[in-house]
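Researcher: Please predict.
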Amino acid sequence: MKNWSYSLSVLAIYIATFLLWQQFPSRVSFLLGGIVSAALMLGGMLWALRIRYFVDKADVWLHALVIVDVLVEGSLYEVARLAGYVASGETELLNTLHSANTFYGCALGFALVLGLHRWRVMKWPRTEAADFQMT
C-alpha cells in the first residue's frame, strides 16, 4: 500500500473538494477550496518527491495534472466573471457550476490513467517494459 499512498490521497482530496463545492456553492468556497486542496496535494507531492515515490517523470506530471485541474475548477467562476460571462444570475450559476456528479467520471479517468501507468512501470521496470513492447 505504501506504493499507492500519495496517489490515493490525491484521489480522496480531489473527490472531497468537489463534494465541498456541492455542499457550499459560493465564490469563497470555490476559490479557497481549490487553493487549499491544491496546496495539500502539492505539499504531498513535495513529500513524495523527497521519498522517491514516483516511478518516473510521467508519473510526476500526471499527478501534477490533477493539481492543475483542481486549481482550474476552483477558479473557473472567477475567470468567467472577469471575462464578462457572469451577469445578474450569479447565485444560479454558483449553484449549478459544480452541482453535477460528472467529477466522479474525471476522478475515475485520473485514477485509471495514473493507476495503470504506475502499475505497469512497477510491474515491468524500464528494461523489462522495453523488452515487452513489440518492435
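Model: The chain has one domain: 2-132.
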